[in-house]
Every structure is written in C-alpha cells, then in structure tokens.
Design a protein that fits this description.
3 domains; alpha/beta; 18 helices; single chain; Rossmann fold; 55% helix; 7-stranded mixed beta sheet
C-alpha cells in the first residue's frame, strides 16, 4: 500500500493529473498482483528461497522507488516507462507472497484454515495502517525518499528474519545471510541520508538555487533564488517571482477594490504568502482582513521568515489581519460573515481538492458572503495557455447568476494570466487605481478587459461538484504545453 501511494504521489507531484496517476497505479498494481499469483504455480521447489527472494526484491525496488522516479524525471525522456516498470515489479513480487507463504505453511503441516485467516487478516490490516500512516505521518515527517527507504527497510528486515530464523530450510543460506544483512544496512543508511539525497536531486528540478524546502502535511514548499529573483513553488508549481509578482497582486487586489463601493471587510481565500494582504493594507479604510489558508506551514513561513516578510511587508502580522488555517470550502459553509470584497487567490485546479473550490456551489457560497454590492475576484489561470479552463471558470460563475467581467494581464513569470471579477449587481467602477502602484494605472486597467481571438473559447461547460470538467480542461492544457 505504501509503495502504491509513494508512486502515485510522486508522479502527481512531478507530472500532475493526480486522478490519472492514482488510477494507473492502482490498476497496474492489481494486474501485477494477478500476474504474480499466476506465476507462483510454476515455482515447484525451494519455496523458502523464493520467498526470501521476493522480500528482498520488493525491498530493493520499493526502497529505491522515489529516488528512481525523480531521477527518471530529470534525465530520461520516458518517465512513464520507469513508473510502470516499478509498479509491475513490485506488484508481481507482492502477488507471489501469499501463494508462496500458503504453500510453505501447507508443507509445514500447520492448520491451513486458521493460518490463512491470520495471513489475510494481517495483510488487510497492514494495508489500512499503510494508507493512514502515509499521508498523516510518513510523508509530512519523512518526505518521499525516507518513506520509501523505510518501507524498503521493513521488507528487507522481513527477509533477514526469515533467513536467520529458517536458515536450515534455505539453500546457500550463508550467501543469503550476507546479502540480506548488507542490503538491510544499506537501506537503513539510505533512510538517514535521504534528506541529503533529496536536496541534491530535487535541486535539479529547479532552474535556480534552492534556498528553502519544507514538506507540510498538505504540500511541498520550495523557495529558490537567483540574484534578485526569489520564487516560491508549491508542489513544483511556481506561485510567484519576486521580480514581477506586483503585477499579479496589483490586479488581484486593486481592480476589485476599484469596483467595490465599500472597503471595510475583506476576505482572502488562499494568499498565504501575504502579498495580497500587503496590497490591501495600502487602503486606510480597510478595517479587517480575514485570510483563509489551509496550510499553517505556509502562513507560518511567510509571517516568520525574514526573506518573506521583506517581500510582503510583514502583512500577515498586521493587527488588521486575522489568519485562519482551514479549508476555504468549509469556512464558507459554516461562516455567517459578510464581506465587501472577496479575493480567491487559490492554486490552479490541478487536482480534485482544488477543483472543488472552482465549482458552481463554491461560487454560490462566495456570493452569499458578499454585501449587496460586494465584489468577488477569482484567480482563473491563463486565458492563453489554458483557454478552456479559464472560460470554464467564467461560465461557472455566470451559472450562479453573477455578473462577471473577465480580465487578464501579462506576468513575465507566468505569461498571460487571468481573473474573473464578479458581483450580484451591475459592475461599475467607483474608485481610481491607487497612486502607489508599480504597474496598474487607469489606462492599463481599462485595457485589462480586452481579449484577442486566440484567448477566447465558446464550447465549455460549467464545472460542477458532480461533474468536475475543469480538471480535464486544465490537464489537457498542461499536456499540450509540456
């Protein structure tokens, strides 16, 4: 179970499209289990040796699974072949385990009925433990490499116990003892040096020098730096560049503020980097900002790290800002607060959890938390690079009776990037752009709402909770531009 989750999670992190990665991994693994069970009938003798070989094989391939996937992504054209090979090898070995163990027990003249029930019970219980431990304990605290090495260590430990406890039943037992002990020691050492190896290999994924990396319970945060350009990545996706982030955040904040009559109460969903809050705090009439970000690791980093606070102006520790680390959907579902402006600054909808925050139901809840003339602004991906995804978000917001005005701008780090401005009433500009901006002016603001022919789409459908088409639109665009 842990190996399946490792391969699926690493592939989602490196390649994207988590639904596809998990589905392929589970399907291939189940298929390989069947292959292993089928092949077991051709093993007629030396069952103890074969069982030891299986445990050693799983330990080696599984223990190196994360590292080999990262290396394949860096240096090979056919990442999928490495991924599929790992799944098939581990699955085939795992498929051999129970048939071999059953026959060993039968030869030992044990009571097969009770022993089989124990084997399957522990097998299923182990699956449950692995599936819970991976997201809650192993990945947040150990990371991908150390988790794989730990699982490999456990398999090799099983092999060592078998070889030393039942050595008399094995041929070439001295060779097996030396080999299994050596591999166990190597895997154990690998677990302790996994962080160093991970830092070295992961550095190759980024163009610039990695100056900070942190695995939280929810995501992998990496910060890179080259001269004056500091970039923050979440699960491998760039969230901002310090050189040009002001363009993005000025449009995210000041365009809806220009259309909002009142500026007293503001809600930010996402925005854990504090950059949107920085722009909002330029308005003296803003009384209170509520910032909802699921990941406490992100908000702690951006409120405490001196490099981040220098960029966001210490906005997250301002007295007018309240941080709540919780799911945005859950907050809207249970809160009764009303806001003059709501800013949705969430990562792109590249998985099911995020796509839920781009559905018609989510925008319906957003609208219910607006004042009568309140303004909603939603980060909406790129109308050029992900055209169908962008206009799907627009249509989804319109399906809830909102008046929507899509707009976009050029952000050098991202390219053409878009937003959707919305209100329950007619959208009318009430204020001018602030004077202390670096990009936005009255003239540039007017031009934001113009789109070229190659940035429009007509035949897109609404993204619903029961039919999340946005993920497909987004993943299709990602594959087209890879």
């Amino acid at each position: 179970m842990v190996y399946e989750l490792i391969i699926s999670a690493v592939s989602s992190y490196l390649i994207g499209d988590s639904t596809l990665q998990y589905s392929v991994t589970i399907g291939l693994y189940m298929f390989a289990l069947g292959i292993g069970s089928f092949l077991s009938k051709f093993i007629r003798k030396d069952l103890w040796n074969w069982f030891a070989n299986v445990e050693i094989g799983i330990g080696i391939v599984g223990g190196l699974s994360s590292m080999s996937l990262f290396l394949a992504n860096l240096y090979l054209e056919s990442y999928a072949l490495v991924m599929y090979a790992e799944i098939l090898i581990i699955g085939t070995f795992a498929g051999l385990e129970i048939p071999l163990l059953t026959r060993i027990i039968e030869e030992e003249q044990k009571e097969l009925r009770l022993t089989l029930s124990s084997i399957f019970s522990f097998d299923y219980i182990g699956g449950l433990i692995g599936s819970i431990a991976f997201p809650m304990l192993l990945l947040p605290h150990l990371g991908y490499f150390a988790t794989a090495f730990l699982a490999g260590t456990l398999n090799l430990l099983a092999a060592v116990l078998i070889i030393y406890r039942y050595g008399k039943r094995l041929k070439h037992r001295n060779t097996y003892r030396a080999l299994s002990a050596g591999l166990l020691a190597a895997m154990f050492i690998g677990m302790f040096f996994a962080e160093n190896a991970g830092n070295l290999i992961e550095g190759g994924l980024y163009r610039d020098t990695v100056i900070l990396r942190e695995q939280t319970p929810y995501q992998k945060i990496v910060v890179t730096k080259h001269k004056d350009d500091m970039r923050l990545y979440i699960d491998g996706n760039c969230q901002f560049s310090s050189v040009d982030e002001y363009r993005y955040h000025e449009c995210l904040v000041h365009v809806p503020m220009a259309y909002a009559e009142q500026h007293s109460e503001i809600l930010i969903m996402g925005g854990g980097d504090g950059l949107a809050a920085r722009e909002l705090l330029k308005y003296p009439e803003v009384k209170h900002i509520t910032l909802i970000d699921l990941d406490k690791g992100m908000t702690d980093l951006c409120s405490q790290d001196s490099r981040m606070t220098a960029l966001n102006g210490g906005s997250l520790t301002d007295a007018r800002v309240t941080i709540r680390n919780m799911d945005a959907y859950e907050y809207l579902e249970h809160s009764n607060d009303i806001y003059d402006v709501i800013l949705v600054d969430l990562p792109d909808p590249n998985n099911e959890a995020l796509a839920k925050l781009y559905t018609n139901v989510f925008y319906r809840m957003c609208a219910s938390h607006l004042t009568e003339n309140g303004i909603l602004n939603v980060q909406s991906t790129s109308p050029y690079y992900a055209t169908n995804a962008f206009w799907c978000i627009t249509r989804t917001m319109e399906s809830e009776g909102l008046n929507v005005k899509p707009f976009h701008l050029q952000v050098p780090a991202f390219g053409d990037w878009g937003f959707n401005l919305a209100s329950r009433t007619e959208l009318v500009q009430h204020h001018s752009a602030p004077a202390d901006t670096r990009y936005l002016t009255e003239e540039t603001m007017a031009g934001l709402f113009l789109f070229g022919k190659d940035e429009t789409a007509e035949h897109v459908t609404v993204n619903r909770l029961t039919k999340p088409v946005l993920i497909q639109y987004y993943n299709d665009a990602a594959r087209a531009w890879q």
